[in-house]
Hints:
The chain is α+β, with helices and mostly antiparallel strands. The chain has helices at 2-13, 17-26, 28-39, 43-50, 54-62, 69-79, 83-87; strands spanning 102-103, 108-111, 119-126, 142-149, 152-156, 159-163, 168-172, 177-181, 187-194. It comes from Actinomadura harenae.
Amino acid sequence: MEHRHDEARHAETSGDPSSAIDRALTEVGPRLRRLRADHGITLGALAEATGISKSTLSRLESGQRRPSLELLLPLAQVYQVPLDEMVGAPEVGDPRVRLTPRDGGDRTVIPLTKHPGPLQAWKTILPGNARREPNPVTHEGYEWLYVLSGRLRLIVGDHDLELAPGEAAEFDTRLPHWFGPANAEPVELLSLFGRQGERVHLRAAPRSRRPGAGAE
């Protein structure tokens, strides 16, 4: 028994290419589900855009259908992400973490987590000329924000908040929400996005609170 355990542990840590590929394929489904949530696309709309049936897309996201190049290429085109990033293909022999910025239109988003999991981390850069007209959206999940620099305006439901550097906020993303620069200065922030019900237990001060006040 101990011998078999050692063999399994060796296979897990020895960098065996077939094991790495199997792990990458297993993680494709959660990554596809996350991409669809990020883009706010329904299965029906995605089926229309890709020509792939809803049932096949659903099985892909749940891991019941093994991903193939024929299925992944149309999805990569719709999501506008490189195929290797969507698949999470392992890089061999180089320990460096390569952070690939994504153009979000009026913002730059840098994913800080490479693999799907309960929480996903992002760094977002909002230029000073980013759109400051609120356009609230809703989707499943829970989000936590931490301002690194600049002042961030955050609207969640009926709350209109302004966060200074070092302040944080968390909210249920099923509530209408939007964030952008509070003034003409650029903003940098970190965000954690989790599944419904997961929280980080930090709060931000309302906009009327004195500048410099910390989070609760």
